[in-house]
Amino acid sequence: MDLEDDTTILSTLKSFNTFISRPERPQLPSERSAGSGVLQSQYKRSMEILEAAERVHSQNRFLQLDQEKKQMELSHKRARFELEKAASNSARDFEHELDRNQDLLARVKKLEGREFEADKNLSDQVEENQVLRRNLEAVNKKLEERDTKLNTANKTITSLKDELRELRQKIQNQDLVFSAQTLEKQELQEQLDLQRRKYQEISQLCQTLQAAQSLCSEHIIKIKELERRLILQEQDMAIVKTIKSEAAKVTDLEKELKRLREENSFLRESRENYNLLKEEAEGLRKKLERMEKTKEELVNVELEKQRLVEKLQAWENLGQSTGLNIRKPEDLSREVIQIQQREIALKEQNYTLNSRVRSVERLQSELRAELTQQCTKTMEEQKKREAQDALVRRLQKRVLLLTKERDGMRSILESYDSELASTEYSPQLNKRLREAEEVLQRTQNHNSEMEAQLTKAEEDVGALRLQLQRVEMELDSLKKQPASSPESSSSVSKEEENTLRKKIEDLEAERQRLEEQNNILEMRLERNNMQGDYDPVKTRVLHFRMNPSSVAKQQRQQEVETLREEVTTLRELVRSLQEGGGILHAQDSSGIYTPNISLSLPPSKEVQDLRKQMESSELRNQRLKEVFQKKIQEFRTVCYVLTGYQIDITTENQYRLTSVYAEHMDDSLLFKKGSKGSMQLMETEFSKTLGEMVDLHLHHQKSIPAFLSAVTLDLFGRQTTI
Amino acid sequence: MTSTLKGITLKGSAELVAEFFSFGINSILYQRGIYPPETFTRVTHYDMSLQVSTEPRLNNYLTNVVSQLKEWLFECSVQKLVLVITCLETNEVLERWQFDIECDKSAKESSSAPREKSIKTIQDEIRSVIRQITGTVTFLPLLETQCSFDLLVYTDKDLVVPDKWEESGPQIIDQSEEVRLRSFTTSIHKVSSMVAYKRTDSACST
Q1: So where are chain A's domains?
Q2: Which residues of A touch B98 (CB under 8 A)?
Q3: Pairing of strands A645-649, A654-659
Q4: Which residues of chain B are at the A interface, by a Cβ-Cβ cutoff of 8 Å?
Q5: Where does A644-721 sit in CATH, by number?
Q6: Which of A207, A316, A438, B168 pairs as cysteine with A543 (C-beta 3.0–4.6 A)?
Q7: What angle do CA B15, B19, B24 make, to 5 degrees?
Q8: What are phi and psi of B121, to 5 degrees?
Q9: Record's Pfam families (chain A) (predicted)?
Q10: Considering only alpha carbons, which residue of chain A is nearest residue B169?
Q11: Among partner residues B86, B152, B176, which is closest to A531 by beta-carbon distance?
């Protein structure tokens, strides 16, 4: 329906377009002649046509959209339909699923029930199992016990068997022993018989021996007797000889005797002379000593004499020096006596003078005391006078005051008297007078009391001053006394005093200096004590041997030593590896940034591996060499045996063949290998003998094996014939 | 804790002084860091908490020394106890803790009666000494290097040297500053303490 609409629309469009195009062609030429009015109408027509086209377009569009809409609605319906189908399907499926679910749930429940039952069964079975196991264990235990019992029984059996064996062995041994012992017994019995026979023989021999011994002893006795006689005879002989010799000496002895007697008498005489001479010598010695003593005394005496002479001269000179006309000691003594008398007189004078001085001093002191007393008295008098003066002054002042008062009173009285006009004032005035008088009296009393106190105070002051002055006087007197008394005695004591004072001052200065030094030293000592110093004479410093600081020092030293050893070993390592590890360092391209020491570790391993490889390869080489040598030897021997020729390589490319059957050791054939590989025979002495064969086999037949075999055959033939 | 309430005997005084040395040395070692602090444990004594080392070798050494010291205190033949701290690298003496001991020899006679001094006062004095030792850490120079210590005993010259002990030098510090600390007395033994340390030449040193 719509398509038909479409086709009609399209057809109309086509017809419209043809219509538009047709009139354009014929109109074209007419347009030029028509002019603009035609153009306008054409334009209007075209515009109308365009509008119509647009309308058609829009209608077309509208129709299209309607179509589309309808299509959409259709599709929607279809989709809805399908969806409804799907929904119904899904609902059906859902119901199916629900049914299935319910079935499954039912099944699950059944299965759960079954499971529960199964569990129960399982637990029952487990319990049964446990019970069975326990039974098993009990049975096992019983079995084990039985086993152990069996084992113990077996062991006992074995032990009993061993014991049995041992006992049997023992019995056997004992049997053996018994048999051996019986044998021994027999032997011993035989020996005993032998011994008895021997004993009898020996006893016989003994008897003969005894007889012989008795004979021997008799002979011995005889021999001893003879020997004794011999000895005696010899002694007699000796005595005889000595007597003979002595007899010969007798004459000599007699001569000697005479001589000796003469000597004896001579000696006796000489002894007496000797004694005499001794006594003389002693006497002379004593004299000598005495003489020497006297000499010394003489010397001393001379010295004394000289001294005395000198003294005498001095004494004599004294007289001359003193000018006292002394020539004899008597004069001296006279003079001395005179001097002594003079001295005595002077001493008497001295004593009298001293006594006078003392009396004078006493008088002086008494006078001084009187003086002091007088002074004190004068002072007292002065004080009294002053006190009196003061009293006088006071009294005068009082008098003045009194007079003034009197005048004043008089004036008052006069004034009052003058004014006594009225008698009214008189009693009052009298009262006032009386009061005034009383006041006056009181003041006067007060004044007098004050004055009395003042006088007392002044008297006290005066007394004190007197005492002071007395004391001062005494001090002065005392000071004067010691100053005066030494003056009388001597001036030496003054000097002594001065020296003593100086000494005291010096000692004081020294004391102060020593005190300062002492303080300084004490400070120093204290400081040293604080620092820890000590007096080695009195104190000793001890400490424990295993103390922590010594232990720590030892540990340190050990650490240091170990570190040093490590350092030395590491240095050696480094040196060795730097020499040999330089190559490895170039090869080692691992790129590890470590110092040389750690780099050396991998090379060393490689080195070891390489060394191992090297060793293994060398071993292999050696083995191979051995094997090759063996094989070569074998091959050569086999060749020699089979072919009959021993092939040696003399120089390169030259081969020497010696045959088995060679007549001489030097018979050999030399072959040389040419450049192309062909073998050529060289001239040797032996080859010269084989000229025919050479010609035949090599030149004609050109076969070396044939030649060689011919040579062997020939040699073999020769050998066998020989 | 050893002397009776009646008074201080020579034996009791020796034990008190030895006990003080044991605790004092431990606290000095802790304060100066000679041994690491984790090797020390806290105990209560003299009514204050003190640090005591737990290392067995150190404790063994200290008990040996202190027991010998107790004997010598009983005989009144010890004059000083010195704790010397030396630097391990340079073997220089850095610090010296010196305890002067004055013994009243009249207490040695058997006829002497125990002295009357209450334990509480002695303990108070000891407590103040140990507190002062702890307080000295503020002005003592830091021990930066690894150090070790040694105990020296100044005894009378005529004393018999026991085995395991030997003579040693006084180990005096050159250029030292000395500070005198408090003292305490048990009426038989008088212990005065002082510390000498090596003068640091830096500008910070006063």
Answers
A1: 606-632, 644-721
A2: 530, 532
A3: antiparallel
A4: 58, 61, 64-65, 79-80, 82, 84, 86, 88, 91, 96, 98, 100, 148-157, 159, 161, 164-173, 176, 178, 180, 194, 196
A5: 3.30.457.60
A6: B168
A7: 150
A8: -65, -40
A9: MAD
A10: A541
A11: B176
Please give the pLDDT value at position B111: 66
- Residue A28 has which token pair? 């074209």
Task: Please indicate whether, in this complex, the C-beta atoms of B149 and A549 are within 8 angstroms of each other.
Answer: yes
Give residue A593's pLDDT.
44
Counting the structural domains of chain B, the total is 1
Q: What is the extent of the structural domain holding B101?
A: 10-163+174-198
Q: Is residue B1 part of a domain?
A: no
Instruction: Please indicate whether, in this complex, the C-beta atoms of A539 and B156 are within 8 angstroms of each other.
Output: yes
Q: Specify the CATH number for the domain of residue B28.
A: 3.30.900.10
Q: Closest chain A residue to B161 measured between Cα atoms?
A: A542
Assigned domain for B151 exists: yes
Q: What is the ipTM of this complex?
A: 0.84
For chain A (length 722 residues), average pLDDT per consecutive 10? 69 81 53 66 90 92 94 94 94 95 96 96 95 94 94 94 95 95 96 96 96 95 96 95 90 92 94 94 96 95 94 79 69 86 96 95 94 91 90 90 85 76 65 82 87 88 86 81 58 86 94 95 88 81 89 92 96 90 54 47 79 94 95 92 88 86 84 83 84 84 87 86 65
Domain presence at residue B26: yes
Q: Is A93 left (phi over 0), alpha (psi -120 to 50) or beta?
A: alpha
CB-nearest to B65 from A531, A544, A551 is A544
**Residue type (1 letter), A205:** L
Instruction: Establish if A556 touches chain B: CB-CB under 8 angstroms.
Output: yes
Among candidates B88, B150, B171 on the partner chain, residue whose Cβ is nearest the Cβ of A556: B88
The SS3 of residue A623 is helix
CA separation (Å) from A215 to A201, A206, A212?
A: 21, 14, 5
